[in-house]
From TrEMBL:
Protein name: Battenin
A Pfam family matched in the record: CLN3
Alphabetical list of SUPFAM superfamilies matching this protein: MFS general substrate transporter (SSF103473)
Superkingdom of origin organism: Eukaryota
One Gene Ontology CC term in the entry: membrane raft
Topological relation to the membrane, as annotated: Multi-pass membrane protein
Protein family: Belongs to the battenin family.
Biased composition (Acidic residues): 255-265
Annotated TM spans: 30-48, 87-107, 119-152, 172-191, 203-222, 282-303, 350-370, 376-400, 412-433
Length: 442
């Protein structure tokens, strides 16, 4: 660690994280990290309908399977007007989000003890394992276990990479947001497209093993990290290395302020460990961001996993499974567009986005109950709009947290605030179960 301290203290030996080439590489690196981090999560949700149907068909005998098909089309009592899976796709959603939620609730308090390099390696292994488990599964629990591995990878990756942005210029947050939006489109579109072309879900998931490899390459070869980044060493050791590194950071920060670059560049890292009282104070200040973000994600995932499966139009040129997959794809297109819009449009009134998303959820809830929509094309438009609201809420929330949080608190704040979307999603998954049961029993 002595070598680390001496390198950090010498501005001449630091990577040029402020140079244009280095900035472009880091922006691109964060874009790929965002894409890879959310990819498995998105694919598991897009495959939810297929996962449940595949297990039901594989675990029944031929006569029972025929009976199941009739019950599937008519619901549990044989008289439902909805085309219902015996198990709601919310089961996959909960498996996809609960491990993420637990990680985001607990990890911000201890994750600083684990260097970023080890975190990335762990995320890569978890993501690859998830694709393998789901592709070769023969029973529901094995598929759900694969989804859980994807959730662990995505949750740990999100809070780690959001924290990592504070070591780079602030515009890498735009790259991260755009990449996570791109993951939605790439994951949902690639899965839907390959299935549409005739590939089996198993082959499709095996092809996607290239994504964890891309995450590895992006982190270790695309990013231009500053020497203050705790790559392999413990954070506490760096704090004990001496005050020369901190003094140099303060000097560097002053120079950039004088050059008018304070808006563009974040402080390279924290100046000391935060106390538990400080962390509680930071969390209280984050509530104004976390609550609107959680409400947006509650409303949109209530739609995605509670209502989407029930928005089935007979006589449409797409089957039920195909309609569901393309709903998911259009939602992700909206997310990608809005998460990539930060440079053009910033929205400070986050509660407005939350309320608009709630209106969407109520409208589609009534549409499912009273079946007054004449065509799936209207649902396609609403789902695209839903994605625009959700993506805008996410990227603007973390932009303003990064902008309004003190330098010393920023790394912890970015990680802690990430619990907002996961909490909303988990509550939406829980709410989707009784809704699914109610409609399927009508």
């Amino acid at each position: 660690m002595e070598r680390t301290a001496s390198v950090s203290a010498d501005p001449e030996q630091r990577p040029d994280t402020g140079g244009r080439c280095a900035k472009c590489r880091s922006w691109g690196g964060f874009w790929v990290l965002g894409l890879c981090n959310n990819f498995a999560y998105v694919v598991m949700l897009s495959a939810a309908h297929d996962i449940l149907r595949k297990q039901e068909s594989q675990n029944t005998t031929a006569p029972t399977s025929a009976t199941l098909t009739v019950d599937f089309q008519a619901g549990n009592n044989g008289s439902s007007s909805y085309d219902c899976n015996p198990v709601s796709t919310a089961a996959v959603l909960l498996a996809d989000i609960l491990p993420t939620l637990v990680i985001k609730l607990l990890a911000p308090y201890v994750i600083h003890k684990v260097p970023y390099g080890f975190r990335v390696l762990f995320c890569v292994v978890m993501a690859a394992t998830s694709f393998l488990l789901v592709s070769f599964s023969t029973v529901v629990w094995m598929s759900i276990l694969g989804v859980i591995f994807a959730s662990v990878s995505s949750g740990l990756g999100e809070l780690s990479f959001l924290s990592l942005t504070v070591f780079f210029s602030r515009d890498v947050l735009e790259g991260w947001g755009s990449g996570t939006g791109g993951a939605g489109v790439a994951g949902a579109l690639l899965y839907s497209g390959l299935i549409q072309l005739g590939l089996s879900p198993r082959i499709t998931l095996l092809i996607m093993l290239v994504v964890p490899l891309a995450m590895l390459i992006s982190y270790f070869f695309m990013l231009v990290p500053p020497s203050s980044l705790p790559q392999w060493g413990a954070r506490e050791a760096e704090h004990a290395a001496g005050s020369s590194e901190e003094t140099q950071r303060m000097i560097d920060g002053s120079d950039k302020e004088d050059e008018g670059e304070e808006e563009e560049t974040s402080t390279p890292g924290p100046t000391g460990p935060l106390t538990f009282a400080e962390k509680r104070h930071i969390i209280r200040g984050l509530l104004k961001f976390v609550f609107p973000l959680g409400l947006v994600y509650f409303a949109e995932y209530f739609i995605n996993q509670g209502l989407m499966e029930l928005l089935f139009f007979q006589g449409f040129f797409l089957s039920h499974a195909e309609q569901y997959r393309w709903y998911q794809t259009l939602y992700q297109v909206g997310v990608m567009i809005s998460r990539s819009s930060l440079r053009c449009l910033k929205i400070r009134k986050l509660w407005t986005l939350s309320l608009l998303q709630v209106v969407n959820a109520v409208f589609l809830l009534f549409a499912v109950r009273y079946q007054f929509l004449p065509s799936a094309w209207i649902v396609f438009a609403v789902i695209l709009y839903e994605g625009l609201l959700g993506g805008a809420s996410y990227v603007n929330t973390f932009h303003f947290i990064s902008k309004e949080t003190e330098d010393r608190h920023r790394e912890f704040a970015m990680a802690a605030a990430s619990v907002g979307d996961s909490l909303g999603i988990a509550l939406a998954g829980a709410a989707a179960f009784p809704v699914h049961r109610y409609f399927c029993s009508l």
